[in-house]
Design goal:
heterodimer, A: mainly beta, seven-stranded mixed β-sheet, four-stranded antiparallel β-sheet, about 50% strand, globular, B: mainly beta, six-stranded mixed β-sheet
């Protein structure tokens, strides 16, 4: 079975640009969560979506947005990129809405570099 | 409020010796606790989780962790280290059901000496 997939694997952008990251969950999983992992730190929660509705939001500015599609895939959008947005962006899927207790399955991540 | 502290940023052990990775947590709620492993250029993989059942939790690859409420600890152990265990390990605390209250520790890098 295919695991969580993310695209692209690497991305280089310049300050002020916009970026879209994509995630496909494990088949049958309806919940997708997004995390930002800055080099040398643990992942930090950004968003959770379940059944196309936002179910949780971390402490990130409004430049960050996301959505989930009817097939449960998801996009993370970041506007007006800053140097500090350079990070590994991780997507995780789980079967239920309880992301706090369910087992989450992580994708390999998208490495974003902002110059 | 929730927080998690991984007490060692780097642990080095010899192959075949025990592994101990320390994690302390703070939570206003009855917490769920997880350990994840991250190998270089790979995604995070769940090792084990505690969700208010048995306090001694067994995970994959011979790892286990014990939930100690009185000490607010959830240390990860393995009796005998293998070279393939070299990776970054994250302790995670979350409030019941709430995604926005999932907190990752800063990570412990485990090195294995031949």
């Amino acid at each position: 079975d295919a695991g969580v997939t993310q695209s692209p694997t690497h991305l280089i952008k310049t300050r002020g640009q916009h970026v879209t990251l994509r995630c496909s969950p494990i088949s049958g999983h309806k919940s997708v969560s997004w995390y930002q992992q800055v080099l040398g730190q643990g992942p930090q929660f950004i968003f959770q979506y379940y059944e196309k509705e936002e179910r949780g939001r971390g402490n990130f500015p409004d430049r960050f947005s996301a959505r989930q599609f009817p097939n449960y895939s998801s996009e993370l959008n970041v506007n007006a990129l800053l140097l500090g947005d350079s990070a590994l962006y991780l997507c995780a899927s789980s079967s239920g809405v309880l992301a706090g207790t369910d087992t989450q399955y992580f994708g390999p991540g998208t490495r974003l570099t902002v110059l | 409020a929730q927080s998690v502290t991984q007490l060692d940023s780097h642990v080095s052990v010899s192959e075949g010796t025990p592994v101990l990775l320390r994690c302390n947590y703070s939570s206003s709620y009855s917490p769920s606790l997880f350990w994840y492993v991250q190998h270089p250029n790979k995604g995070l993989q769940l090792l084990l989780k505690y969700t208010s059942a048995a306090t001694l939790v067994k995970g994959i690859n011979g790892f286990e962790a014990e939930f100690k409420k009185s000490e607010t600890s959830f240390h990860l152990t393995k009796p005998s280290a293998h070279m393939s265990d070299a990776a970054e390990y994250f302790c995670v605390v979350s409030a019941y059901s709430s995604a926005s209250k999932i907190i990752f520790g800063s990570g412990t890098r485990l090195s294995i000496r031949p």
